[in-house]
Amino acid sequence: MIIGYTSGVFDLFHIGHLNLLKNAKGLCDKLIVGVTTDDLSLYKGKSPMIPFEDRLEIVRNITYVDAVVPQENMDKLSMCKKLKASIMVVGDDWYDTPRWNEYEQQFQEANIQIVYFPYTKGISSTRITQALKNTRGWTNRE
């Protein structure tokens, strides 16, 4: 059985998230998705608009997702090893970045393949959040 793993904040779930999960499921028999906790999300200096438990429930109910786990730290390699995943799926916006170049070496040594899928152009949670702030004055503090 081929187990795949991907993770993300999945805040303001959108078509880009769905595309990633659909494509990831096409590579494996079982897709496990890590949903980034609210505390870990702060590493980007952002606080999610949607609470962690709600994001977890949204992702859990996506057809392509077989299991959901909390992603509580940045150590994706340990998570893949723990889950016995042989494939790690990420968006290609991470391709050839210093962090992921380092990960590639570590994952290769662990015999785990990293697959980069095209980032869905023109859509992001950041853009949706900014549009909501601009048009409705909506923030995660309300």
Q: What does it look like?
A:
By secondary structure, the protein is α/β, with parallel strands linked by helices. It has helices spanning 15-25, 38-41, 52-60, 76-83, 98-109, 125-136; strands at 3-8, 30-36, 67-71, 87-91, 113-117. Helix 5 (98-109) links the parallel strand 4 and strand 5 (113-117). The model has no long low-confidence stretch (mean pLDDT 87).
TL;DR?
The chain is an alpha/beta fold.
Mean pLDDT across every amino acid position: 87
Q: Estimate the strand proportion.
A: 15-25%
What overall form do the CA principal axes indicate? globular
In sequence order, what are the helices and strands, one letter per element? Answer: EHEHHEHEHEH
List the helices and strands and how they pair.
Blueprint: E1 3-8, H1 15-25, E2 30-36, H2 38-41, H3 52-60, E3 67-71, H4 76-83, E4 87-91, H5 98-109, E5 113-117, H6 125-136
Parallel strand pairs: 1-2, 1-4, 2-3, 4-5
